[in-house]
Amino acid sequence: MSSLPVLVLNSGSSSIKFSLYEAGNGSRTRLFEGAVDGIGTDLGKFWMKDASGNKLADETPALPNRSVAFNLVADALQSGKFPKPAAIGHRMVSGGPTVLENQKITPALIDEMDSYAAFAPLHTPIAVYIMREALRLFPSVPNFVILDTYFHRTMPEVAKHMPIPEEYSAMGVRRYGAHGISYESIVYQLQPNVPEKLIVAHLGNGASISAIRSGKCLDTSMGLTPTGGLISGTRTGDIDPGVLLFILRKIAEKTTNAEAAADQLEAVASKKAGLLGVSELSNDMRDLREAIADGNAKARLAVDKFTWTIAKWIGSYVAELGGLDMLVLTGGIGENDIASRAEICAGLGALGIVLDAQRNNVRGAAVISAQNSPVTVRVIPPLEDLIIVNHVLRLLGGQSDPA
Ligand code: ADP
Question: Phi and psi for 235 in degrees, rounded to 5?
C-alpha cells in the first residue's frame, strides 16, 4: 500500500485531540498534531504544531460548546497547508454491547453507539458528535471507529460478568474496561518479547489497571463505565453501592425528578469525587504534590488513597495471573510522578517488585526496577495514535485482526 494521510481524532469529555499521519507500509510520519481543550469554558486552549515542533497555532479562545471547538479543528484541517485525509480513525471509549469490533463508520453505526451513551457518559456524546461532523465535512473519506473496549474483548466471562440480576446483564451491563488503546500500544511496544504475566497501570486523569496474559487482556479495573475501578482524578472508582444509594436518597430529598437526580448522582461519582473529592483542592497530581509539600493533610490522604488502591489492585492481579513478570506504569502520572511510582511500589517487595530510587528518578520511558528485582518495572508512554493508525490501515486493506 502506498502511503496515505490518516487523520486521528481523539475526543475527551472536554477536549478534542487531532493528528495527521503519513502512513504506509511500515512507515508512520506525523505531519502535525493539535488539541482543543477546555470545551465549555471561556478560556479554552487551541494549539497545533508541525512535525518539527513548530507552533502552527497557540490560542486561548472562548469555547462555549463543542461546535465552536470542532470548527477550529475543521478550519485547521481545511487550511490547505496539509494533505486531505484519505482515512479518519476515531477513538471511541465504548460502543456498547453491540459495537465491539473496530470498523467503518456509517450513520446507522453512530446511532447505535449513541444509544449506549450511558456506557461512557462523559465521552460518547462528544465522540458521536465529532463522527457526524467528520462524515459531513469529508463525505467521501472512510471513517473508522477504534474502540477502547476492543483490547478487553479477550477477558473471560468470569471477569466480564457483573453480580447483578440477569435481566440487567441481558441489557449489556458487564465489565467492558477502558484505556484499551493505551494497553494495546504497550503490548505492541513490548513485542516481540511480551512477558507472559504482565500488569499495566494507565494512570492519567482517568486511571485503570489491567492484568494481561501473553499479550491478551485477562482482567481490567474499569467496569461498565470508566467510573469504576481505581480512584481517578474526579471519579470514585469501585465503591460500596450503598454509598451511591445514600447519596441518591440525599439528592432525592431535594428533587422529585428521577432523571435530574440520576444526573446529579452521576456528577458526584464522575466529576466531583476521586482525588478532587478527597483533597477538596484539585484532580491534578501536580497540584496535589505541591499541596503535600506545604503540609496539606487532605491532599496527602487523597494521594495515599490513590497509591494504596493501585497497590491493592496489583496484588489481586498477581493472584489472578499466578505471578508477575513485568509491571508497566503509563499515563501522565505513571510517566511523570516519581513519588507516586515510589509510593505504589513501596510495599510490594513481597510480590517481587523492588524499585531502584535512582532509576526511578526520571521522567518518560525507563526501567525503574532494581537490578535484582524479580519483577521488571518499566515506564512506557502509550502510543495510542499509532495503534489507531495501524487499525485504520488494516481496515482500509480489508484485513481482519490477526489476533
Ligand atoms: P488524560 O487522562 O487526561 O490523558 P494524562 O495522561 O495527561 O491525562 O495525565 C494527567 C495527570 O498526569 C494529571 O494528574 C497530572 O497532574 C499528571 N502529571 C502530568 N505531568 C506531571 C508531572 N510532571 N508530575 C506529576 N504529575 C504529572
Answer: -115, 150
Helix (H) or strand (E) holding 321: helix 297-321
pLDDT of 402 = 52
CB atoms within 10 A of CB 27: 9
Atom of ligand 1 nearest to the CA of 286: 16
Q: Which residues line ligand 1 (CB under 6 A)?
A: 204-206, 233, 284-286, 331-333, 336-337
| Dist. CA 336–CA 234, nearest whole Å | 19
Which three cell numbers, joined as nine digits, stand for 11? 475526543
CA distance 183 to 90: 17
d(CA 219, CA 155): 6
* 381 Cα to the center of ligand 1, angstroms: 12
Ordered domains of the chain (ranges, CATH)? 5-147 (3.30.420.40), 194-237+273-379 (3.30.420.40)
Q: Residue 216 CA to chain centroid, in angstroms?
A: 18
What dihedral do alpha carbons 205, 262, 150, 6 form, nearest 10°? -70
Q: Read off the C-alpha cell for 242.
A: 450503598
Q: pTM to 2 decimals? A: 0.96
Which of 235, 270, 237, 268 is CA-nearest to residue 252? Answer: 268
Residue 194 pLDDT class (50, 70, 90 cuts):
very high
Edge to edge, what strands does the sheet with 28-37 contain? 55-59, 45-50, 28-37, 15-23, 4-11, 87-92, 143-147, 103-104
pLDDT band at 396 (very low <50, low <70, confident <90, very high): very high
- Asked if residue 335 lies in contact with residue 381, where contact means CB atoms within 8 angstroms, the answer is yes
Cα-to-centroid distance, 268 and ligand 1 (Å): 22
For cell 518495572, the residue is 377
- Pocket mutation for ligand 1, best pick of 13, 37, 230, 337 (most atoms within 8 Å of C-beta): 337
Catalytic residues: 148
